[in-house]
C-alpha cells in the first residue's frame, strides 16, 4: 500500500513541487520526468528484483527495497531542482515497485495453489487501497504543510514497516533452493564454512548505518544545522560548487568505500552484513546481463510513451531513437535467454497458457484502468466540478470499489475458478464503460446520481480480476520462479497503462478534431463579442465530451478483450480449474 499511495500522491503535489524547484506551471511538460522517472524506476528493474528474490530470499530483497525507497524519499523531499526530484522519484519507484512482486511471491510461497485466492485478493485489495488513500493523504498534508512533508513522512512509515516485517519473518522469505526449478547447478562440494547462526557483523552494521546517516544528512541539509555558523561548514563545498565535495558527502563516500572493502574481506566463516564477494555468483545466478538488457527494453519503452504528447503523436519525439534501441536490446535479450545457463526468463516455463494469458490480460486491463484514472476526472472538471479536488472525489467512487472487488475476487476464484471470476469482473467493467460512453454533461454532479453505481461497478470489476490473474500465473510456474512471475504481472499492467493512455488518447483526439473542424469560429457565432462567445464554448465542450466518450468506449474494448483472454487461457496448470471441476462433479 505504501508504494501504491506514493504512486498517486504526486498527482496533487505536482504543481507545488514545480513551483518549489523553479518550474513554471505554464510548462507542465517540463515536469514530465518527475512522473516518468518514477515509472521508469518502478518498471525497468522489476523482473530483475523478482528473480533476485528467488535467489537470495524474499526477506533480503524486501528489506533492500525498503532502504532504496526510504533513501529516494529523502532525496525527493530535499530536492532543490528538477534533477534532484527526478533522481529521488526514480529511486522511490525502484524501491517501491520491488515491494509488490516480493509480497505476492511470499503469499504464493506460504499458501498452496488451491488456497491462494483469498490471500492474493487481500494483498491486491491493500495495494489498491493505496490508490484511494494516496490522493486523500496528499491533499490532507497539503492543506496544512508543504509537499516535502509528504515524502519526509515516508521515512518513519518505512521504518515501521521494516520493523514489522523483521519481527514477523514469514517462512516464505527464504530462497527456494531447488536446482531443478532454477536451472542453476548445485553448489560445489568444496565451499567455505558458514558463519555461526545468529552471528552479527557489528563493524559492517556500524559502517552501513554511518554511511547512510552521513549521506542522508548531506542530501537533506536541515536548515537549523546547514545555516548555523558552527555546523554549516559541513555542507560547504571544498572544491568548486559541487555538492559531492562537501565534508559530509566525502565522509559518506569514504564510508561507502569502507563498507565495500569490508564486505569483500573474510571467508564464509566470518559474518558479513553485505557479502560483496558473492556478487559475481549472484550476478550469474540471477542472469544479470539478461536483466540489464530487459531493463533497457522496458526503460526505453516507458520513456517513449510516458513522455509523449498525445495531441502530437503516440510517442515522444525521442522515441525515433529509443524504440529502435529497445528493439535491438530485445533481440539481444532473446538471444541471451536461449544461451544462458540460468536464464532470467525461461521461455519454456512461461509458455503455459495460464502464464501467457495472465500477462496479456493484465496488459489490456492496464490500458482500460488508465483511461478511467485519467479521463473520469477530466470529464468531471469539464461538466460539474471546477476544482481538481472535486474531480478527484468523483474518481474516488471508482477507486474505493477496487479493493472491495479484490478481496471478493479472491473469495470467488477459489470457488468459481479463475476464468469465471475474471469474466465476471471484466464483463462488469466493460458494461460500465459502455454506460460511461453515453454520459451527458449532466451525468456527474453533487448528490446521488446514476453515474455513482456505474463508477463503483467499474472499480469493482477491476478489483475482481486481480486475484485470479495473479493466482493463475503463480500457479503456472515453479515455486522458484514466483518472484519473477509476480514481477512480470506488475510490469504487464504498467506497460499496458503507459501504452494504453497514449493509444486511447490518440483515438479520442482523432474524434475531437473531427468534431472541432465542424465548429464555426467565434467571429461567426458571436460577431458582437467573439472573445466571450458562450455558443462557441458550448460546442467546444460537446467536442471534448465526445472525445472522452470515445475513450471510454475504447477502454470497454480493452477490458472486454481481457475478459475474453481470461476465459480462453486462465486455467490451472494441467487444466485443473476449480470452477470447471465443480461443474463436472455437479457440485
Structural class by SSE content: mainly alpha
CATH architecture heading of the domain at 352-587: Up-down Bundle
Low-pLDDT runs: 178-190, 573-587
CATH superfamily of the domain at 352-587: MFS general substrate transporter like domains
- CATH fold assignment of the domain at 352-587: Growth Hormone, Chain: A
DSSP helical segment count? 25
Shape designation: globular
CATH class of the domain at 352-587: Mainly Alpha
Question: What does this 3D model show about the protein?
Answer:
With 587 residues, this protein is mainly α. Among the domains are: 1-172, MFS general substrate transporter like domains (Growth Hormone, Chain: A, Up-down Bundle), CATH 1.20.1250; 352-587, Up-down Bundle (Growth Hormone, Chain: A). Helix content is 71%, strand content 0%. It has 25 helices and no strands. The protein has helices at 2-20, 32-44, 46-56, 58-77, 82-110, 117-142, 147-152, 154-168, 179-182, 202-220, 223-226, 247-264, 279-285, 288-306, 319-339, 353-383, 388-399, 401-416, 418-436, 451-464, 466-476, 482-516, 522-525, 534-569, 578-585. Helix 5 (82-110) packs across helix 22 (482-516). The longest helix is centred in the last third of the chain and has 36 residues, at 534-569. It is globular, with a radius of gyration of 25 Å. The two termini are 37 Å apart. Residues 178-190 and 573-587 have low confidence and may be disordered.
